[in-house]
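Notebook p. 47: complex prediction with zinc ion.
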Amino acid sequence: MIHPDVLLAALAGLLIGSFLNVCIFRWPRDLSVVAPRSMCPECETQIGWYDNLPLISYILLRGRCRGCRTPISYRYPLVELLTAICFGSAVWQFGLTLLALKLCVYSSLLIGCIFADFADRILPDEFTLGGALIGLVFAAFVFLPQGLPSLFIPVGWPEAVRSVIESLFGGGFPSVSIFLVGEIYYRLRKKDGLGLGDVKMIGMMGAFYGLSPTLLAILAGSLGGSIISLAFLYFSKKDSSTYELPFGSFLGIASLLVIHLEGLAPAA
Ligand SMILES: [Zn+2]
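Predicted complex, C-alpha cells below:
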C-alpha cells in the first residue's frame, strides 16, 4: 500500500513538472514564464486548461494539438512523469520533511537542466545560478555532512555556518576546477570543451549536496555520456566534429540517480 503522502507528492510533482515544461521551452528563448498563456508553437492557438492537464491531456489528445494535429513533443509527458516519480521517491524515503523538500527542489532543477540542454543545448541561468543560490539557503537548514572544509573551520562555529561553508566549497571547488581544465583545453586545442553552463550547473549540484556526490555524478555522467554519445554517433553516422554533446543532460541524469539512490542505501 502506497502512503497517501507519497501519492500527494507525486501529484504535486505532476503540476511542478508541467510548470517546468514551460520554463524549459521559454527560458532558453528569453521569454517570460508568467505570460502569455501556453499556445501551440505550430498554429498558435491558445491551449485551454482542459488540454493542459499534466499527463492526462497528452494521453487524451493522443499526443497531438487539438487544433492543427501537430504532434506534441514527448518531452511534455516525460518531464511531468519524471518529476512525479522524483517527488514520490523523495517523500517515500524521507516523509514530509525539509530533507524531502530539498530533494524535490533539487530534482526539479536537474530535470529542467536535463531537458533544456537536450532540446536547445542551453542550461538556463535560472536553473543553474538561481539553483545554486537556493542550494546555499537550504544548507543553512538541512545540514550537509562535514567534509574537507571542516578541517579548517574553528570547532566552536555553529553547525548552520559550517554547513553553508560546505555548500560554498562543494559548489565552488569542482566548478572552478572544471572551468580551469576547460580553459587549458581551449588554449591547447582552440576548441571549446565545456560550456560555461556546465560549469554553473556543477556549482549548483555541489551547493546542494556537497563535494563527494557531485564528484561521483561528474564521473558517472562523463563516463555514461561518452559511451552513449559514441554509440549514438556510430549508429546515426552523424559527423562527430560538429555534434555537440548535451553534457548537462548526462550530468543531470547521473546526479538524479546518485542522490535518489543514496537515500535508499542502508545506513552504515
Ligand atoms: Zn496546433
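Notes: The chain has two domains: 1-95, 97-268. The chain has a mean pLDDT of 92.
Next step: compare against the earlier run before touching the bench.
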